[in-house]
Amino acid sequence: KTKKSTVRTIESLTVTQEGSMIRVTISGNGFLHKMVRIITGTLIEIGLGHMPIEAIEEILQQKVRKDAGETVPAQGLYLDEVYYK
């Protein structure tokens, strides 16, 4: 059995404030289990000043899960749109 690749490409990521809500919009060629929740947790850590923004590059290069932010709970997160090419 051939092992599937776990490499995914994030094409864009934006963070915007809409009233009391924060919208994180991520576009990519696919997502792994809990990937968006992990990315969101990492962004929260950066926003709170617990992690420098430069840490993202190192986390991605080293591929060590424990170096990223916490996996945020699914409550409050929702899938808005899906596009297929």
From TrEMBL:
Top-rank taxon, per record: Bacteria
Residue ranges constituting the Pseudouridine synthase I TruA alpha/beta domain according to the UniProt record: 2-84
Any single GO BP term: tRNA pseudouridine synthesis
GO molecular function terms attached to this record: RNA binding; tRNA pseudouridine(38-40) synthase activity
Keyword list, A-Z: Isomerase, tRNA processing
Family designation: Belongs to the tRNA pseudouridine synthase TruA family.
Protein name as catalogued: tRNA pseudouridine synthase
